[in-house]
Design brief:
Blueprint: E1 9-10, E2 13-17, E3 37-39, H1 40-43, H2 47-61, H3 75-79, H4 88-91, H5 93-98, H6 105-134, H7 141-166, H8 170-173, E4 177-180, E5 192-194, H9 195-212, H10 217-220, H11 226-229, H12 237-250, H13 254-267, H14 275-278, E6 294-299, H15 303-310, E7 320-321, H16 322-328, H17 331-334, H18 339-343, E8 345-346, E9 351-354, E10 368-373, H19 374-384, H20 388-400, H21 416-430, H22 436-443, H23 467-472
Antiparallel strand pairs: 1-2, 2-3, 4-5, 6-10, 7-9, 8-9
Helix pairs in contact: 2-6, 2-7, 6-7, 7-9, 9-12, 12-13, 12-19, 13-19, 19-20, 19-21, 20-21
Length: about 475
């Protein structure tokens, strides 16, 4: 794999990016240029150098090309058929994308940029890991473990989503070549690993991260610096466990998926959002993301600009079809109950606008973009539970904290197929604007996506690796 950053090493000097950011805020990540390069040993000779490098990676995730838009409410929800797109003239490249026209030049450019930016972030994580290994003692031992744990977790997170984008699902191609898993800065080409091998390496990095984060301030309540104290904006210990639950389920290892999901649930660190915080008359005071339940978020300072560009009425607006939203939320049965149906949308006309990520100047929920939430742990637990009784309890608990009444609880004797369908419906409702629905359909090998407007093929679940990468790595 081409690491996407030009790196030269001479007498222990490594040219790398220097991220002079003062806090974990998602500004534009600095471009590669001579003015942003510093000597490797100089960067990691003082504590703030480690903070700057880690901050740079989190900042990169917030970009429009990655989780700020495309890997959240943008490309992934377009692929998941969550929006109404009627023409190339009106909807630009998203129209081609929702029709899975990956060979369209504009779509190809978007996909190539995602690949490049993700591996660019991986490269910078590996620089941080190398810096930690080469400069032991600059950080206090407890701080060093936190930085190292987060770095391993970030490397795993990035590769896992690269796999979910560019590799086959485990159920459809466990032994097929997928993506390179890049563990070091090197000029050598990293060979492709199979789906199964990538998942093993992802899990390995995450288990290593969890061990390093055993004394995470989120567990101990004691942070040595304010930077390490903002744990909801970092891949903290419980975020690692939540990600492990997601990864193990993708690998169909339900025992370990349940084990990790239960650890997050039983920690009681993430209480359910109250109805009062959601059912507010003033939108700026509404908790659209269910903040207490957020295990890991990006602190995305550009979120207001991005949501106003794509989710409010403008030339680039992503509209929802009201009749489709009625279908998703089963409005005939639960429409008057489900908080998400009532409060997630604005309804100017026949089209609806998703407002769960809207930003307001005085809101307490600004700049927070969720990547892992408690509700997913309950859905994983429901899918992996060892008894039907336990499974329906997990699912019923989630639904009750979204406004459902006890009279709508699933019963213990519910058919397996009905239970799995109900779990899938909750994924589609819960993660609008977060991109997880497309991944759910891929993981479960759905034969067709709901509301798709073109003949569907399971090959659409796999995005094409950039041609330049194929040529560079002799992957044809």
């Amino acid at each position: 794999m081409n690491t996407m950053i030009r790196i030269q090493k001479t007498k222990n000097i490594l040219g790398i990016l220097f991220f002079s950011l003062l806090s974990v805020s998602c500004q534009e990540w600095l471009d590669v240029s001579p003015s942003t390069e510093v000597k490797y040993d100089d960067l990691f000779s003082y504590k703030n150098g480690f903070k700057d490098q880690l901050t740079g990676v989190y900042t990169a995730l917030c970009s429009e090309n990655l989780y700020g838009v495309e890997l959240g409410f943008g490309m992934l929800d377009v692929l998941g058929q969550q929006y109404y797109l009627w023409s190339a003239a009106a909807n630009g490249p998203y129209y081609n994308l929702h029709r899975f026209e990956y060979d369209n030049s504009r779509i190809e450019a978007t996909i190539n940029t995602i690949w490049t930016d993700m591996y660019n972030a991986v490269a910078n994580v590996n620089i941080l890991l190398q810096g930690l290994a080469d400069h032991r003692g600059v950080l206090a031992e407890n701080e060093e473990k936190i930085y190292e744990g987060e770095a391993y977790a970030l490397r795993a997170f990035l590769h896992f989503d690269l796999l979910r984008l560019f590799g086959k699902s485990y159920v459809s191609g466990a032994d097929e070549k997928a993506i390179p898993y890049v563990k070091a800065i090197s000029k050598k080409v990293t060979p492709l690993s199979t789906v199964s091998e990538v998942l093993d390496m992802v899990a390995g990095d995450l288990e290593k991260a969890a061990a390093l984060l055993e004394e995470d301030p989120i567990k101990t309540g004691q942070a040595t610096t304010s930077f390490l104290g903002t744990r909801s904006f970092h891949l903290n210990y419980y975020a690692v466990r939540a990600l492990l639950a997601r990864v193990y389920l993708y690998k169909n290892d339900k025992v370990n998926a349940l084990k990790n999901a239960r650890e997050v649930i039983l920690s009681e660190k993430y209480p359910w959002v109250s109805k009062g915080a959601v059912a507010t008359s003033d939108r700026k005071d509404r908790d659209g993301i269910f903040l207490p339940e957020c295990i890991w978020m990006l602190n995305n300072t550009r979120l207001k600009t991005l949501t106003e560009t794509y989710l409010k009425e403008s030339d680039n607006t992503l509209y929802c079809n009201g009749s489709v939203i009625d279908e998703i939320f089963e409005s005939q049965t639960y429409g008057g109950l489900d908080w998400r149906y009532i409060y997630y949308f604005e309804r100017p006309d026949w089209y609806w606008l998703s407002n769960k990520l809207y930003q307001y100047t005085t809101s307490a929920y600004n700049n927070r973009q969720p990547l892992l939430r408690l509700s997913e742990m309950y859905l994983i637990a429901a899918e992996c539970a060892t008894s039907k009784k336990e499974a329906v309890e997990y699912l019923n608990t989630l639904r009750q904290h979204r406004g459902f009444e006890e009279s709508h609880n699933l019963k213990e004797n519910v058919a397996d197929e009905y239970l799995q369908t109900a779990i899938g419906k909750e994924y589609r409702k819960e993660f609008i604007g977060e991109g997880q629905w497309f991944y759910y359909c891929k993981r479960t090998d759905q034969a067709v996506l709901p509301n798709v407007t073109v003949p569907f093929s399971k090959t659409y679940y796999v995005l094409p690796i950039p041609e330049q990468e194929k040529e560079y790595g002799n992957r044809n």
